Amino acid sequence: MNLLMPRLTVAALALGALAVLAARSLAPQRHWTTVLGPSLLAVVVLVAVVAALAWVLGHLGQALLRRGARDPAWGWFPDDPPGLPPRRRD
To answer: Which among 23, 47, 75, 87 could bridge 35 via Cys, Cβ 3.0 to 4.6 Å?
Structure first.
C-alpha cells in the first residue's frame, strides 16, 4: 500500500496546526475559529499545489523516457554525463 498520501496529509495537518499556534500568538485577541479557517484554506491550497506539481513532473518524466531519455533527470542536459559514452554498450 502506498503511504505517501497519508504521510502528506499528516504533514499538512501538522503544518496547519503550527500555523494556527503561530497566528494565535501573534493575535491573541482573535477567536481560534477565525484563525483556523484561513489556516485550513492555506493547507488545502498547499496540498493542491504539491499534488499538481507531482502530477506535472511525473508526466514530464514519462514524456522524456518515451522520447529516448535514459533517465528523466538527465533530460535537462544536452549530452550524456562525463565518462558515460565510453562505458555504454550499444
So the answer is: 23
